[in-house]
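Researcher: Structure for this, please.
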Amino acid sequence: MTEALRFVGIGMGVALLLLVLRKTSPPAAVALALAAGAALLLAFTDRLRTVVEALQSLSKMTGLEEEGALLLRVAGIGILCETGGRLCRDAGEEGLGEKVEMGGRLMMLSLALPLAVSLLENVFAMFA
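Model: Predicted structure, C-alpha cell format:
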C-alpha cells in the first residue's frame, strides 16, 4: 500500500510541476513528462518480472507452455504499444499515439488468431 501511495504521490507531484512548467517552458515540460513516465515505468520492472515468472510456472503446470508464451507475448506487445502511444500523446502527438496503439492491436490480433482458431476447433471437436 505504501508503495502505491508513493507511486501516486510522485505522479501527482510531477503533474503539478508540469502545470507550472508548461506555461513557462513547454519543451522542458515535454522532456520532464517523458522522463517521469519512463522512471515510473522502470519502477514496475520487479513486479512485472514476478508476474511473468508466475505465468510461466502456471503454463508449465498445465502443460500449455507454448500457449502461455504466446499470451505473454501478446500481453507484452499490448503494454509496450499502449505505453508508446501514451508517450506520443504526452509529447503532443495525438495522431501518432493512436497509430502506435492501432499497430499494437493488429500485432496482438495476428499473434492470437491462430490460438483462437485452435481453441474453437477443439471445442467443435468435443461436440462432434
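Researcher: Any notable elements?
Model: The radius of gyration is 20 Å. The mean pLDDT is 87.
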